[in-house]
Amino acid sequence: MRILLTGGTGFVGGAAAADLAQRGLLPQTIFLVRAASPEQGCERLRDNLLRFGATAAQAQAVTPAQVICGDLTGIDAFAESPLLAGLTHVIHCAALATFSSNPKIWASNVDGTLALARAVIARSQLTRWLQVGTAMCCGPGLASPVHESWEAGLQDDTHLVPYTRSKVAVEHALRALPGLPLVVARPSIVVGHSTLGCAPSPSIFWVFRMAFALERFTCAPDERIDIIPADWCARALVSLCLKPTLAHDLYHVSAGLGSNRFTEIDAAYAAARGTEPIAPRYQQVEVDRLRELVPLFEQRLGKVNRLLILRALMLYGAFAELNYVFDNSRLLAEGIDAAPPLAGYIAECVRTSESVPMTEQMAHDFK
Ligand SMILES: NC(=O)c1ccc[n+]([C@@H]2O[C@H](COP(=O)([O-])OP(=O)(O)OC[C@H]3O[C@@H](n4cnc5c(N)ncnc54)[C@H](OP(=O)(O)O)[C@@H]3O)[C@@H](O)[C@H]2O)c1
């Protein structure tokens, strides 16, 4: 077995690298990393492995000889790398995962991914290409729980952000590639780590912090919010990649109907902070009316860039307003344990966020 992991310096890919470490598979893994040299790429991978709780010995097990330096937007520079030969499994996590309108989204997530897949197929006899998608690529207007579907999300103009459109487009382009043993895994919303909280990455947790501080957001109090921790997500992704046979070629990696309701998350968040839940004062606000909250920003969030906060709340609020949970019965039927609910590990997210300003956490998601 010889695995290629992309995105190993990121949130989901870093958790996947740590999971491969736990399985003793790092020596058989090749990494695609943006770096000036294999040594620098190796350092980046090791630092991230440590952030995800790998031991120093596990991190040191990664060597520069396992690193391909490269960017998805410039595959030609490394398409002939001997490290792309003899691969059996690919876990493709790398992507420009942002709700901003970064002009490189399409070049990285669609064109670059396709070029990488072509380069790998040309040099390797793959058993599986595990494409990490996003459950939110299904687009709006569906009934919850949302079931896996190749058809949903195809209408370009319905996407809330270019990122989800790119993720659905690349899946279809990969499906059309002859010889690619494609399985798509679509995580729901990844927040924190079940034991390390937000220490490895603060991604998206700031949305909860803001909603609780403002005592207002777009979701209904009894709404379930489909959140999964990075380590569980990674375990599921690696399992889907390595399992010899699978019943399907498309999976949600999600908490589904096991997701906590907003009120349950509120209660656990308050307990972790030693405060009272906001439930009695909570107001659900439609996305279009979020701008009415601007006068509250400074009072509740401190000195902030009002426009930036409003934009962030509107983007994340629009997704929350969809009120989706993603059916995970396919995943569970493959023998993968259900995700630990956010309320069970939010205390660690709170503890590891205490000294970090919300706006600093937010910057992570606006690349
Ligand atoms: N986080 C979530 O809630 C969530 C939910 C559903 C699905 N996903 C999916 O999970 C995957 C990883 O997301 P994430 O949250 O882990 O994002 P992330 O923390 O931003 O990590 C992205 C990774 O991709 C790499 N990357 C980005 N652009 C690249 C390029 N042009 N060439 C090579 N590498 C590139 C980054 O490398 P650098 O370190 O060099 O920047 C980093 O390693 C994505 O496919 C995303 O769609 C995430």
UniProtKB/TrEMBL annotation:
Identify the domain of life.
Bacteria
- All copies of the Thioester reductase (TE) domain together span 5-236
Coiled-coil regions, chain positions? none
UniProt-recorded name of the protein:
SDR family oxidoreductase
